[in-house]
């Protein structure tokens, strides 16, 4: 048995004008607005209903209930991830250190994640809300280079 997701239920109510199902017009609006699909046709909506709606009565009435919506959004067809991005087209044969800076977390922020401006200058290493100070990334790397490979005796 599938549990009802509150967020999907509220979306269904929003797009169906407080009914317990989406008709093809409602579903098309949902797909265009929430899933960012373009040129959604009635035929495409009917395909979704026939494939994902478990209730045969709803299928006959050409509507998608909450279980059908849930089935659709949990399927690859309802995934908002762009399928073109499943394949990597960048050079991934380099050592991790060649990618590390670009993959680091929040180095572009000057303050908190929500309200701050980002910067275009040198990266700053900072761990928010701790007793550490901000330091230029360049200084961190120079210090690591100076001490990381010194042999302790």
From TrEMBL:
It is found in: Cytoplasm. SUPFAM superfamilies: EF-hand, PLC-like phosphodiesterases. It holds the Pfam family EF-hand_like. GO terms for molecular function: phosphatidylinositol-4,5-bisphosphate phospholipase C activity. Keywords: Cytoplasm, Transducer. Residues 90-153 form the Phosphatidylinositol-specific phospholipase C X domain. GO terms for cellular component: cytoplasm. It comes from the Eukaryota. One of its GO terms (biological process) is phosphatidylinositol metabolic process. This is 1-phosphatidylinositol 4,5-bisphosphate phosphodiesterase eta-2. It comes from Liparis tanakae (Tanaka's snailfish). The lineage of its organism: Eukaryota, Metazoa, Chordata, Craniata, Vertebrata.
């Amino acid at each position: 048995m599938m549990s009802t997701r509150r967020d999907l239920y509220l979306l269904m109510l929003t797009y169906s004008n407080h009914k317990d199902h989406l008709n093809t017009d409602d579903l098309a609006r949902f797909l265009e607005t929430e899933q960012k699909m373009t040129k959604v046709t009635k035929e495409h909506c009917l395909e979704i209903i026939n494939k994902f709606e478990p209730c045969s009565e709803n299928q006959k009435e050409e509507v998608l209930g909450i279980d059908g919506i849930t089935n659709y959004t949990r399927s690859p067809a309802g995934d908002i991830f762009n399928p073109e991005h499943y394949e990597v087209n960048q050079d991934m044969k380099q050592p991790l250190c060649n990618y590390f800076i670009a993959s680091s977390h929040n180095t572009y922020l000057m303050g908190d994640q929500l309200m701050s401006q980002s910067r275009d200058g040198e990266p700053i290493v900072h761990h928010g809300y701790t007793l550490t100070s901000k330091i230029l990334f360049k200084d961190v790397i120079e210090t690591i280079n100076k001490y990381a490979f010194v042999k302790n005796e």
